Amino acid sequence: MPSTSPRADLASGLLASQPGPCVSLYQPTHRHFPDSKQDPIRFRNLLKAVEDSLARGHDKTVTGPILGPLRALADDETFWLHRRDGLAVLAAPRFQRVYTLLRPVPERAIVASSFHIKPLVRIAQSADGYQVLALTRQTARLFEGNRDALQEIDMAPGARTITEALGEELTEPHLTVASYGGASGPAMHHGHGTKSAEVDVDAERYFRAVDRVVLEHHSRPSGLPLVLAALGEHQTPFRRVSQNPALVEEGVVGDPEALDVDELGRRTWQAIEPRYLARLADLIERFETARVHGLGAADLTEAGVAARAGRVGVLLVEADRVVPGRLAPGTGRVELASLDHPEVDDVLDDIAEMVMAARGEVVVVPGDKMPDRTGLAAIYRF
Q1: Helix, coil or strand: residue 57
Q2: Would you state the torsion angle of the CA atoms of residues 51, 55, 60, 65, taken in this order, to the nearest 10 degrees?
Q3: Structural domain contains residue 20
Q4: pLDDT less than 50: residues of the chain
Q5: 114: which residues sit within 8 A by CB, 6+ positions away?
Q6: 237 and 357 in one domain?
Q7: How many domains does the chain have?
Q8: Domain match, 24 and 120 both
Q9: pLDDT per residue over 341-381, tens digit each?
Q10: N or C: which end of the chain has fewer CB within 10 A?
Q11: Range of the domain at 189
């Protein structure tokens, strides 16, 4: 199963387009022993619940392609050695995704006609997200993180190494051999262009290839700011050729290969935290201005009705806040209820999903930064 970031999959609509049955597994995981020893056991328990549910409504020709990769994952000892704070696994007949999460999630096993994506929405739309490009002359690696942690993600093929990007087009030293002083004279080697100049040419071509791959396959789908981690001598050449508007001025200067993931995450957050705080301040100011002019609301029902009509352009949702209830069919009006009822979920997530479906922006914000106590703040398009 490929391990990737949920943000791009949510933005592309990939998770909403899979035919069922769809399996959604969520569980908190642990970074250190002995707590981590329980993680594969808990996963097997969730998997057993999924197997029982699938068996009640589908035959083995349908369940086999779903359960096979899940069972293999349960038995993969190497996979369970390197966990973070949470795990999400989505599987359908011709689709599997594994997401390593930097925040814990409630334990759930759900079999339905579509994926249960609300926990992913909360994590993927957090305002503190960013990506890091760890770049050398020879290699490129991509990471995604937030204020709490950083993890490496699968970088799209095409520029992960200079050989992958340039292949046979790698420049070689151009040398000719000439003989002076007659036929028996010593052979003199003359280079046309220095090797260092050719290395610089290759580095620039490689940096352009890296920039294209990251822009097309990661920055555009995710919308996240991109931080460059590279030696000072590589920062300027890469920025000179980059066409990526997500690349921020702040960078991590140093050899990224000499930094472990935790140190890289710490240094990146130091660089990007002022930008994060400025973005939150701007969003709050935009909301307050919109509310004064009747183009924003923090009332749950008002926001729900506006979201149903496709009017919400930006929705701020309070992190870790749950408002039990449901949206009335057809109107979007909020009906508060208890989570004990099987048809009751979190209305904040329901409204967020509607906003995303209408191509609006959802931003998850810490509670102490929210402009209101209702759990959300909506900025309307019109």
Answers
A1: helix
A2: -40
A3: yes
A4: 2, 173-193
A5: 16, 18, 20, 22
A6: no
A7: 3
A8: yes
A9: 555 568 898 899 889 889 899 999 999 999 999 999 999 99
A10: C
A11: 130-273
